[in-house]
Amino acid sequence: QVTLKESGPVLVKPTETLTLTCTVSGFSLSNARMGVSWIRQPPGKALEWLAHIFSNDEKSYSTSLKSRLTISKDTSKSQVVLTMTNMDPVDTATYYCARILAVGYYYFDYWGQGTLVTVSS
Amino acid sequence: DIVMTQTPLSLSVTPGQPASISCKSSQSLLHSDGKTYLYWYLQKPGQSPQLLIYEVSSRFSGVPDRFSGSGSGTDFTLKISRVEAEDVGVYYCMQGIHLRFGQGTKVEIK
């Protein structure tokens, strides 16, 4: 059974750095063609892909947020970490991690429950 | 970037009646490998999105056969043959090339 679970702070202050962890089970981060993505959703708004990482350490970032994002993984711990610098109230959102499959291009098949992050002083 | 546009943005449906959602992409999603990377997700109230349809028309594991996807190139459609109460939520199309989602279509029960 594939599961993903997000963890991290529920509240961050403007200008601070957000660090989120995704812990996976039911698959290995060393599996070829499988990786983990981060996607966010501001309250009442649509989904926005942020970044992903694959077993070979291939990484990709949203063009608009690339300068603020870093994604990494610890295969032995089955964890993927996303950091986002210089947080702003507009970054208030539910942050999801999802398993991403590379089958030519990409899609997400399993999602975590999400974690709501509020940016406020 | 490829922009995904869904219509309508909201839909109110009588149980047992059909429903249809359109998704248009600003560029063709047909890849040189012959596949078309268009996906549909449903986000039920208070839940995370779940995959319904992959590569235009293939149902993901466990998805009821009342859901079907069709289309090609830039125009795609998700159809629910007979809407049930459990189908309420927001439906998103997504293109797998740049991982962009549509704005979402909210489906409610009348």
Your description of this structure?
- The complex is a heterodimer of chains A (121) and B (110).
- Chain A has 121 residues and is mainly beta.
- Chain A is built from no helices and 11 strands.
- In chain A, strands 2, 4, 5, 6, 9, 10 and 11 form a 7-stranded mixed beta sheet that branches. In chain A, strands 1-3-8-7 form a 4-stranded antiparallel beta sheet, with no helix packed on it.
- In chain A, a hairpin with a 4-residue loop joins β7 and β8.
- The radius of gyration of chain A is 14 Å and the shape is globular.
- By secondary structure, chain B is mostly beta strands.
- In chain B, 0% of the residues lie in helices and 49% in strands.
- In chain B, strands 2, 4, 5, 6, 9, 10 and 11 form a 7-stranded mixed beta sheet that branches. A 4-stranded antiparallel beta sheet of chain B has the order 1-3-8-7, with no helix packed on it.
- The termini of chain B are far apart.
- The model of chain B has no long low-confidence stretch (mean pLDDT 95).
- At the A-B interface, β5 and β10 of A face β5 and β10 of B.
Element layout with pairings:
The complex is a heterodimer of chains A (121) and B (110).
Chain A: E1 3-7, E2 11-12, E3 18-25, E4 34-41, E5 48-54, E6 59-61, E7 69-74, E8 79-84, E9 93-103, E10 105-111, E11 115-119
Parallel strand pairs in A: 2-11
Antiparallel strand pairs in A: 1-3, 3-8, 4-5, 4-9, 5-6, 7-8, 9-10, 9-11
Chain B: E1 4-7, E2 10-13, E3 19-25, E4 38-43, E5 50-54, E6 58-59, E7 67-72, E8 75-80, E9 89-95, E10 100-101, E11 105-109
Key features?
heterodimer, A: 7-stranded mixed beta sheet, 4-stranded antiparallel beta sheet, 0% helix, B: 110 residues, mainly beta, 7-stranded mixed beta sheet
Radius of gyration of chain B: 13 Å
Query: What's the overall geometry of chain A?
Result: globular
Strand portion of chain A, in percent? over 45%
Q: Roughly how much helix do the residues of chain A carry, as a percent range?
A: under 10%
Oligomer: heterodimer
- Give the H and E element order of chain A: EEEEEEEEEEE
Which blocks of ≥5 consecutive residues of chain A have pLDDT under 50? none
Low-confidence stretches of chain B: none
Straight-line N-to-C gap of chain A: 39 Å
